[in-house]
UniProtKB/TrEMBL annotation:
This is Uncharacterized protein. PANTHER family: BED-TYPE DOMAIN-CONTAINING PROTEIN (PTHR37162:SF1), HAT FAMILY DIMERISATION DOMAINCONTAINING PROTEIN-RELATED (PTHR37162). It comes from the Eukaryota.
Length: 172
């Protein structure tokens, strides 16, 4: 027991003496911290520092006192707890615009969309929605660019073919 007291980061007694509710709350806080880190693409390295800040800011909180989530534990939670439930096949599609203004040609990313299904109909509907939501008129669209994927620019049923039905003369 002397080694546990000497090294507070190995607090096995916390898990053994905690009630189920306290342990669940502790796990929920650690999982939430790691989820935030993963969601915002932050590093796991500063977790230990963040936890020390929590312990100093909330000295009366038993949850804050008992959190132990350094970079190794954070990585394990991310890989073994969160990853199996967060794994989805989602493509991120950037909608990029280029237009003329009084000061010259402007270009930029209008929006990133999550594309769960890879069908031409779904991609077309999402692109059309983004353009309309940003009050861009489809009849002023003159060209469409994409990677060389049949869903995007194929000859028959593709995103380009669906736009071409609405806008004859659209340039590939």
């Amino acid at each position: 027991m002397k080694s546990v007291e000497a090294n507070p980061s190995n607090r096995i007694d916390v898990a053994c003496n905690a009630t189920t509710t306290e342990l669940n709350k502790l796990c929920a806080v650690e999982d939430a911290m790691v989820l935030y880190t993963v969601k915002h693409s932050h590093s796991h390295i500063p977790h230990a520092c963040t936890i020390n800040i929590f312990k100093k800011c909330f000295p009366d909180s038993s949850t804050a006192k008992n959190i132990t989530c350094d970079k190794t534990k954070a990585r394990e939670i991310a890989c073994n707890v969160l990853a199996p439930s967060l794994t989805r096949n989602i493509k991120m599609v950037p909608i990029v615009v280029q237009f003329f203004s009084k000061t010259g040609v402007k270009h930029g990313i209008l929006e990133f969309i999550e594309q769960m299904h890879e069908s031409a109909d779904d991609l077309f509907a999402n692109i059309e929605y983004v353009l309309e939501a940003n009050e861009l008129k489809l009849n002023q669209l003159v060209s469409l660019g994409s990677d060389n994927n049949n869903v995007n620019v194929g000859n028959h049923h593709s995103v380009f073919a669906l736009f071409e039905k609405l806008l004859p003369g659209l340039i590939k």
